[in-house]
Specification:
With about 290 residues, this protein is α+β, with helices and mostly antiparallel strands. The protein is about 30% helix and about 25% strand. The strands form four sheets. Strands 8, 9, 12, 13, 14, 15 and 16 form a seven-stranded antiparallel β-sheet that branches. Strands 1-2-3-7-6 form a five-stranded antiparallel β-sheet. Strands 4-5 form a two-stranded antiparallel ribbon. Strand 4 and strand 5 form a beta hairpin.
Length: about 290
C-alpha cells in the first residue's frame, strides 16, 4: 500500500509514511509501505513495511510503561464501526491514537557515530553542539548516549540543532523532560535489543502535549526511526549491514542523484532485501511473527 483514502473519513494529512485521519476525539494512524530516504519519498513501496512499523511501535508502546504514549488500540475489532468497511486495508497497519499537540523537534539519541552525526563529527568534532572525544571512527560507540535534537520537517530535510535552539523552540522545562525521557527510552530499547542480537546505533522519538501531559507519539524504535545493526557483524570503522533503511541509503549513495525529489526507482532486489530486513528486525525484537 503506497497511499490510502477512506471515503467518508476525513484525512488530515499524508506524512512521509503515515496517513492520518480525523475520528473526532481521536486520530487514525495508518502506516503505508512508502519509504523515504534523505527526506525524499521514493516511488517504490516496500511490501509489508507499514505493518512492521505499526506492530513494532505498538510492541514498544506497551513495553515502556514508564512513559505515557498516544496509543489507544491497534486491535481492529475495537475500531469505530464506521471503519468496518475498510478492515482489510487497515488490518495490521493502523492504530487509534490520542490527539496531542506535537512538539516541533525530533528527539534524536545517538549511541554510535553514524549518518549525519558522523559527517558533523568529522567537520567539527561535535554533534549538535555536544563535544566528543577526538579520534573516533565511523560506527564508534560513544562514551555514553547523547541527545541531539533536530528540526522536524514533513517535506524538506531535518536539521540538527543545539540544546539552546531546542530550548528556544519548546521551552527549557519541556526540553529537559523530553531529553531525559528520550535517553531513558533509548536505554531500555538498547538493552532489550542487545538480548536479540541487535545494536541500536541511534534513534529518534517524537512527543506531543495533551494538556500538561507529555506523550510519546508517532512511532517508536522502528527500522524507519532507528539504525539497527546486527551485533555479530559490527566492526568499528565500517558501515555495518543494517536491518533498517540504511541499506537503501547505501544503494542510493552509489547513484548520480542530488537527493531532491523525485526519488529514483529501486531495483527489485533492493526492494525484496529491504522488506526481508524489516521483517527480520520485527521478528527478532518481538519474538513474534508479523500479523
Amino acid at each position: 500500500m503506497r497511499s490510502l483514502e477512506l471515503p467518508g473519513v476525513m484525512k488530515l494529512r499524508s506524512g512521509k509514511v503515515r496517513e492520518v485521519f480525523d475520528l473526532g476525539d481521536t486520530l487514525l494512524f495508518v502506516a503505508t509501505d512508502r519509504l523515504s530516504a534523505f527526506d525524499v519519498i521514493l516511488p517504490d513501496p516496500i511490501p509489508e513495511k507499514g505493518a512492521v512499523l505499526n506492530q513494532l511501535s505498538a510492541f514498544w508502546f506497551r513495553k515502556f510503561d514508564f512513559v505515557q504514549n498516544h496509543l489507544i488500540t491497534d486491535d481492529i475489532a475495537k475500531f469505530p464501526a464506521k471503519l468496518s468497511p475498510f478492515r482489510d486495508q487497515l488490518s495490521g497497519r493502523s492504530m487509534i491514537v490520542r490527539k496531542t499537540r506535537p512538539l516541533p523537534v525530533e528527539c534524536v539519541v545517538r549511541g554510535y557515530l553514524a549518518g549525519s552525526g558522523w559527517k558533523e563529527y568529522q567537520q567539527s568534532g561535535s554533534i549538535s553542539g555536544v563535544a566528543l572525544p577526538k579520534g573516533l571512527q565511523l560506527a564508534s560507540q560513544l562514551p555514553g548516549p547523547i541527545f541531539t535534537p533536530s528540526t522536524k520537517s514533513e517535506a524538506g530535510h531535518d536539521e540538527n540543532i543545539d540544546w539552546e535552539k531546542c530550548c528556544a523552540a519548546i521551552g527549557r522545562d519541556v526540553a529537559e523532560r523530553v531529553r531525559d525521557l528520550s535517553l531513558k527510552i533509548y536505554e531500555a530499547g538498547r538493552v532489550h535489543a542487545a538480548k536479540c542480537g541487535i545494536i541500536v546505533a541511534d534513534t529518534k522519538f517524537e512527543f506531543g502535549l495533551l494538556g500538561d501531559d507529555l506523550l510519546l507519539i508517532d512511532e517508536c524504535l522502528t527500522p524507519d526511526s532507528s539504525r539497527f545493526w546486527p551485533a555479530d557483524r559490527y566492526v568499528v570503522g565500517q558501515s555495518p549491514p543494517s536491518f533498517d533503511k540504511q541499506f537503501v541509503r547505501d544503494y542510493l549513495e552509489t547513484l548520480d542523484w542530488n537527493k531532491t525529489p523525485p526519488g529514483p526507482s529501486l531495483p527489485t532486489e533492493i526492494i525484496e532485501k529491504t522488506a526481508a530486513k524489516y521483517r527480520e528486525a520485527f521478528e527478532r525484537l518481538t519474538g513474534a511473527e508479523l500479523a
